[in-house]
Amino acid sequence: MRELVYYVAVTLDGFIAGPGGEFDAFLVEGDHMDGINARFADTIPTVAAEALGIEQRNDVFDTVLMGWNTYQVGGLPSPYRHLRQIVFSRAHTAEAENLEVTADDPVEVVRRLKQEDGGAIWLCGGGALAATLADEIDRLVLKRQPLLFGSGIPLFGERPYRPERFDAVETTAYESGVVFSEFERRREN
Asked: N or C end of the chain: smaller count of CB under 10 Å?
């Protein structure tokens, strides 16, 4: 079965963007970028990867999920055209290469996707969508940035208090101060 992986940059105080969706303070230069480019090349927007000469083989992810605000951030009609892109919105539509905008229930969509053949499913953002899909997330890959935002869009939007355990898989600290931490959901036997 395919995994849903929430792979996202997050501040030390738990925000994935500023109050207005700002993300330009996140570090995009430094030794951590080699880790992103080597292991998670599929998460680089297609245009940027082409400009940098980075090959995208879809060997980790072949599908990306995002809410409308996350989709709008880059201003590109098909930001990850090398992947199957599913954008959740009840109010908007868009047409572009490998892009599907749907008003369907995200949980039902993810459950269907998990039954299909293919690679992992990347939950790109945002926080409200992550909260909706929290029970479906199999793996977290957090790029903790050495930043405090003070306020903004939380890693997980509002959800009821219900502790859930994830086990640490791997942590890599970079001189830039960015720390990649990977966790997998603890499955009760």
From this structure: C
